[in-house]
Each structure stands twice: as structure tokens, then as C-alpha cells.
Write a structure and sequence with these properties.
alpha+beta; FAD/NAD(P)-binding domain; D-Amino Acid Oxidase, Chain A, domain 2; Arc Repressor Mutant, subunit A; binds flavin-adenine dinucleotide
């Protein structure tokens, strides 16, 4: 059965699909995003280094270089519009020996060619003055003043909230299983027998973008998984460094980094291991040991007793070496936005603008909406003034009740996160939206209360509530 006809369907609700989605909602169009998972940002967008790179790393002339430098400049404004935590905290790439110094010089030249501003090579003393907790074995650094940090999943959630508020549609739990060309349109088949028709189709399916491409065109590239593992620390470690500290990059990645997060934690990682399984994000002893040792070289001040959690993400490595962002002479209304490996997060807003241009060149009519509202707001109780807190609690008692005592998150914020959820809320979905359960106890104390709140607000049996993905229910039986 064919459902409504859309102007544009986007496959994939990561930061790339979300950025294109929001950009398109500025125009008078019917837009639908389909994702196989039960929330947005469940792929690479959920687990990465969260750095809005300056752009000194990608090869000059590549898509990665072009979009990194322009995307970096767009983040401050889009995070302000979307009320998402962002900090221009700068970065240092550190050198331990003369070979590393050569690398810094090459990165500096590369960055200049890419149009990166605010780069300088610093000696040991100046570097240690900026970051006194660095190892005294370092001998120089490359400073990148435009490097920033963001919360990638909160950013993506906000992109979707804003896109939906501006008339776009999102359908989760909808894996695209088949695509057929039908006259000048596409029929997009999803699980459970639903079929959607669209004039234009955008492939932003991350690690599975090759599979989607092959549904409509001859195979012309492949996407391979490369695992990256991390260790995150308590906030007690978050002030060790102001800047993001990179070791020198290798052929396989940007090098192990140590950085604070926008929420005040510290994290280290990633490693870079080519793997076979595109979905396996379990961490391994070998990878964690590698990043642990590498981070110890960066600084011996990190207290490893303060470890909070390990996690891993899968990079989508394209066989072409660069992002694949194009339509095809044979199939102008199908656009691949594939192989978006790092620095894809940093590139996302710039990629979105270009994809809209490609769609326009392919025949999509773009009429600006007069009522597009770029602003999305959320309630963060801790950030409010005392007067604002007082008024909020006076009007709604739920803001006077702390549920997550580690992160100081109120019941009001949890209810707000539930009401904003795109589908049935999950424990981790609530955590990603308002940070309840992100703290030192990792939800040991507040999870039962959050289950209770979801159950009441959504009128759900507690046994139906999932931890994260659609098959992760946590309560099996009622025993009393
Ligand atoms: C370890 C690591 C570190 C990184 N560090 C950084 C960094 O610091 N800075 C930076 O700029 N970039 C970084 N990146 C890269 C960045 O995370 C990615 O470029 C970005 O998240 C890619 O977004 P995406 O939307 O293309 O993919 P994803 O976030 O993976 O989204 C793709 C979506 O498609 C959906 N999907 C797949 N198949 C189907 C289907 N058949 N039907 C429906 N839906 C489907 C998936 O469920 C998923 O939600 C890093 C990546 C990793 C893994």
C-alpha cells in the first residue's frame, strides 16, 4: 500500500540526514526522514569524538577539507539557534619527537591550504603554559584556535525537533528494504509493508549507504566499518585540560585524543580497528588498553580510578577515500551522501546546504517558507537564574523534584524530554535528551524512577519500556 507522496525522502536520521532535513524545512516542501532505529542519532552520530575540527587534517581539494572548514564556521550560530551546548575550546596537536614536529609542520601547511585560520606552532614552554597538565615530554604543539566541541546527539535531536516543528516528518522503526523506480519517482519500501513515494531521494544511511545505493544503481563503492573506542571519566577530571589534545595523526585516524566534553567530563580515545561487523559496537580489552597507554603519554595526571564508562562507535570508511556526495546522470533525483567518516560531524551543516543545491539543480523547486522558525528551546533547570527556577517550580512542582541526583536533573526536565520524544521514550533516549542517568552512578539510583515516570506519562506497562534499542526491554516479570 502506497502512503503519501513526498517531495523528498531522506534515508537515515543521523547528523547528516538531520542537517539536510532541517535545511529543507526552510522551503515549502513535503519531507520525510526514515530510520530503521527507534530514535535519531543511533549510528555513528551517537558515539564519536564530538569535535568540530578546525580542518587542518583532510587532504586539500577533498570534499572533507571543503566542508570541514565551512561547516566549522556554521556551528556556533546553529547551536545558538537550536539551544545546544557548544564551546570553542581550541585544540593542540602535540609532538614528542622530531618526526612529530615534521607532522605538525605538514598539518600547518595543509590547514593553510584548506583555508583554516588561527593556526600556530608553539614551543614546549608556551604549550605547557596553556595546558600545564600535559606531559613534560612534549616538545611542541600545533594550536588550532577554531576547533570546538559540541554534543553530537543533542545537536541531532535538536535538528529533528526543529525540522518537525517546521513541518517535516520523521518515521522511526522503518528500515528501508527495497527501492523501485516508478516513472519519475521512487517507491521506498520499509519493513511492515509500508511503501512511500517520493520525487527525490537522499541516501544518508551511514555505514549502510552502500546497501541503499545498490538498491537503485550499479555498485560503485563500498563502505567498511572501522571501530573507535573511548573511555569517559567523571567530572572530577573534566578540568584537567581546557583544549582538546590530539596526538599526531596516523594513516588510520586522527590520533588518540584527550578532551573535556561540553558537559564537563573528560574522555580519551579513539583507537582505529578495521572490523567486519557493521553493527558491533562492543568495546574490547585490546582497544581500551591501547587508548589507556596512549592517553598516559599525553598526561600522567588523569586519574583512572575516575573512569565512568567505555563506549565505541563505527566509522563509515568509503572505498573512494573521500565523501561521496553526488547525483547521477542516469538518476538525477537520487543523491548519495555516503562515506561520511570523520570529520562528518563538523561538515554536516555545510554538506546540508550543498545537498539542497544539488537537489535544486536536479529540478526540485525551492520556495522559501515565510514562517520558518530557526529557534528551538529546551529547559535546563541548572542553567536558569534563581528567579527563573523559582517561577518554574511555582507553576510546575515537577521542577522542584530532583530525580537524577548526580546530574541534578528534575522530574520536570524528564517529563519535558518524554514529551519531546519522537516515538516511545527509552531510558537512554531520556538520558541523551536531558542527561538523567549520565552521572557518576550511571542511572543506578534514578533508572527505576525514570521507568515509573515514563510509564505514568505514556500510559505504558513498565515491561514495555526499553533501555535503548527496540529489543531492549529491561523488566521481564512482575514478582510482587
Ligand atoms: C569513532 C568515531 C569518531 C569520530 N569523531 C568525529 C569527530 O570528532 N568530529 C567529526 O566531525 N566527526 C567525527 N566522526 C564522524 C561522524 O561521527 C560521522 O561522520 C557522522 O556521525 C556521520 O553521520 P551520518 O548521519 O552519515 O551517519 P549515522 O549517524 O550512522 O546515521 C545513519 C543512519 O542511517 C540509518 N540507516 C541505515 N540503514 C538504514 C536503512 N536501510 N533504512 C533506514 N535507516 C537506515 C541508521 O539507523 C542511522 O541512524 C567520528 C566517527 C566515529 C565513529
Amino acid at each position: 500500500m502506497v502512503f503519501f507522496m513526498y517531495d523528498v525522502i531522506i534515508i537515515g536520521a543521523g547528523v547528516i540526514g538531520g542537517s539536510i532535513f532541517r535545511e529543507l524545512t526552510k522551503y515549502d516542501l513535503s519531507i520525510l526522514v526514515l530510520d530503521k532505529e527507534n530514535d535519531v542519532a543511533m549510528g555513528a552520530t551517537k558515539a564519536n569524538s564530538a569535535i568540530i575540527h578546525a580542518g587542518f587534517d583532510p587532504a586539500p581539494g577533498s570534499f572533507m577539507a571543503k566542508y570541514n572548514v565551512s561547516g566549522n564556521k556554521m556551528y556556533k550560530n546553529s547551536c545558538a539557534e537550536l539551544d545546544v551546548p557548544y564551546e570553542n575550546n581550541e585544540a593542540l596537536v602535540i609532538a614528542f619527537n622530531t618526526k612529530d614536529i615534521k607532522t605538525l609542520e605538514n598539518l600547518y601547511k595543509n590547514g593553510k591550504k584548506n583555508g583554516v585560520v588561527g593556526l600556530e606552532i608553539l614551543g614546549k614552554d608556551k604549550t605547557l603554559q596553556l595546558e600545564p597538565n600535559l606531559s613534560t615530554s612534549i616538545i611542541a604543539s600545533l594550536r588550532a584556535k577554531t576547533s570546538s566541541i559540541v554534543c553530537p546527539f543533542q545537536y541531532t535531536i535538536a535538528l529533528f525537533e526543529n525540522g518537525i516543528a517546521n513541518g517535516g516528518e520523521l518515521l522511526l522503526n522503518s528500515e528501508v528494504t527495497k527501492i523501485e523506480k516508478y516513472k519519475e519517482t521512487f517507491l521506498v519500501y520499509t519493513g511492515f509493508g509500508k511503501v512511500f513515494q517520493t520525487k527525490f531521494l537522499v541516501n544518508a544511511a551511514g555505514i549502510y549507504a552502500d546497501k541503499i545505493h545498490n538498491m537503485v544503481l550499479q555498485k560503485s563503492f563500498s563502505i567498511s566499518p572501522r571501530l573507535g573506542e573511548y573511555i569517559i571519566f567523571n567530572k572530577s577530571q573534566g578540568s584537567l585540560f581546557s583544549r582538546t589534545i590530539f596526538q599526531c595523526p596516523t594513516l588510520r585516524g586522527k590520533g588518540v585524543l584527550v578532551s573535556k566534553t561540553v558537559h564537563g567530563n573528560l574522555f580519551i580515545g579513539p583507537d582505529a580497528e578495521d572490523v567486519v561487523d557493521k553493527d558491533d559496537v562492543s568495546t574490547k580489552n585490546s582497544g581500551l588498553t591501547h587508548i589507556f597507554r596512549a592517553a598516559k603519554n599525553t598526561s600522567n595526571k588523569i586519574d583512572f580510578n575516575e573512569t565512568l564508562k567505555n563506549y565505541a562507535g563505527i566509522r563509515a570508511i568509503p572505498s573512494t577515500g573521500d565523501f561521496i556526495i553526488k547525483n547521477y546522470t542516469k538518476l538525477k533525483n537520487f543523491i548519495d551522501v555516503a562515506g561520511i567518516k570523520s570529520p562528518g560531524l563538523a561538515c554536516a551543516p555545510a554538506i546540508a546546504e550543498d545537498v539542497v543545491l544539488i537537489l535544486k539543480e536536479s529540478g526540485l523547486t525551492l520556495n522559501k517558507k515565510s514562517n520558518f522558525n530557526p529557534i528551538r528551546k529546551r529547559i535546563n533547570f541548572l542553567e536558569l537564574s534563581n528567579k527563573e527556577k523559582h517561577n518554574l517550580v511555582k507553576n510546575n512542582k515537577a521542577f522542584g523534584k530532583i530525580i537524577c541526583s548526580c546530574e541534578k536533573i528534575t522530574e520536570g526536565e524528564i517529563l519535558d524530554a518524554i514529551d519531546r520524544s519522537f516515538s516511545v521514550p527509552t531510558i537512554c533516549g531520556i538520558k541523551r535528551r536531558c542527561r538523567a542517568g549520565m552521572g557518576k552512578c550511571q542511572g543506578s539510583y534514578c533508572t527505576p524512577q525514570i521507568i515509573d515516570i515514563i510509564s505514568r506519562r505514556c500510559n505504558l506497562d513498565k515491561r514495555e519500556i526499553c533501555f535503548d534499542s527496540a529489543d531492549s526491554t529491561i523488566l521481564l516479570e512482575k514478582i510482587r
